[in-house]
């Protein structure tokens, strides 16, 4: 099949996070199974011309413009994208839109709907009942109708399913779709130098709670002189607080924020860690956690994370509440017990290999696309 994949924003430092990783992983797996896929998105941050591929996946990128200042990603638009979609509509059999309440993916979804191109939507937890004053008019103008006319709307958790039904206000074709992860060779549980590393790799944003990670590191460091703590990710609002907290901890090079890295380097960076920690709350299905698990890393996540039942059931890490005390205790347990760390890491690699295969996700997508195309004929 010929598949058009739409995502909000591509940057060299992975500012938009998980949805882009998911879109690229899906496209690569579908291409491996013989399908044609092009990913289109707004883009910024590149020097010179935009790339024509991301990790081997063909992309068509459009200049990101700020249409609504002060609204972050939601206020971005992709200059020229809608015209390109009109011109290339007949080049595709189906569209897969990684949708959010923004001015890139919502207008794209509405356009493919009006052009009669079958489409599916994947919101990644980004469309739910909202008190934001901009949500109501946007939902009335665009969100509800694109949800209702989609051949399928994918959800990650029961909570997301309920939220989508509430926003859609009618019968939606809701389907579960997990975020698969490419199979990786297990990387073991840390550097060969004998020094352990605890890693936070995510956007430095309030929802991710990077300062909670810093607080836990500051509490643990005196008892664990052989452990280093690292944060990796772009600043999305918490950079100042993180910098101040790191300085206050006074741990020197044992606690550092390395800044952002290119998305294609994230797996390699995860491979160097011993333990992966994501203290964020209400996280639907974080790709960074799945990637860490696929590499054989034990993880520490909160009980509001969509992956918490999977991690707990498979013994792939430790699930905590949102308190600093439980977060600190969980990290302490792992860095104090190499046998536990190794056992949970092995369980994580096995669980993702058996139950989160990217190939299986691609096959499921292809079946859904085919059904979507058949329903429009």
TrEMBL record:
Key words, A-Z: Glycosyltransferase, Transferase
Pfam families assigned to the protein according to its UniProt record, in alphabetical order: Glyco_trans_4_4, Glycos_transf_1
Molecular function terms, GO-annotated: glycosyltransferase activity
Superkingdom of the organism of origin: Bacteria
Domain Glycosyl transferase family stretches: 193-349
Glycosyltransferase subfamily 4-like N-terminal domain ranges (all copies): 17-180
InterPro entries cross-referenced by the UniProt entry: Glyco_trans_1, Glyco_trans_4-like_N
Name listed for the protein in its UniProt record: Glycosyltransferase
Organism lineage string: Bacteria, Bacillati, Actinomycetota, Actinomycetes, Micrococcales
